[in-house]
Amino acid sequence: MKQTAASTRQLLCFVLLLLAALSLGNCKSLNSHGKYQVQIFNGLEDDILHAQCTAEGEELTNADLNPNQEHSWSFKKRDMCPLRISLTSVVEGAGGQFISVRVCEKVSPLKLAFRVEKAQKHPTLIAESRFTSHTQIWCYLLWTKGRRSFLSFLEDPTSMNEYSANAGCEWRAQKNGIFLLNKKTGAYEHRYDWDKKLDP
């Protein structure tokens, strides 16, 4: 029993170190300064564009943009990645010890399960983990003939890579929809249509 408790403590220390390393990787920024910038440009010819953006329930911007006016703001990703770790259970099973760890972030809780093979002299840690929680910024754009709520920023370098070179996303509102700048091609790509504005 002493050996089991000691190996459980050793495993828990290893798991905590592993999670700390994973969390740093998950919060690593795309540029050397650790900052991101989101920009919204009013490409409507003769209308004011209202822009309101939030992250994790906190308002980041609330602005009225005149035609050909842009509004941008920046933030540090690391500030938006708090990490809390707690051991939820240790279960003895036929295949070995199973340790369940809960990782809580602002956006949503994550679970990681670790298994140690008993049969081996030096236990092998088998981990299954998937980080699905990322910083998300939602924007709501409104003008006289349309409105749209959309995901304007996702903390996921694999999905935003061609749009967030140098850690920025540039959105453009036009009469025919909302466009995102592809920084590899230099062209704005249509991403969203407008929802028709309801009459009061």
TrEMBL record:
Compartment(s): Secreted
Superkingdom of origin: Eukaryota
GO biological process: rejection of self pollen
Keyword Secreted appears in the UniProt entry: yes
Residues in the signal sequence: 1-27
Pfam families linked: Self-incomp_S1
GO cellular component, one term: extracellular region
Chief location of this protein within or outside the cell: secreted
Listed InterPro entries: Self-incomp_S1
Keywords (A to Z) from UniProt: Secreted, Self-incompatibility, Signal
UniProt record similarity statement: Belongs to the plant self-incompatibility (S1) protein family.
Name assigned to this protein: S-protein homolog
Species of origin: Morella rubra
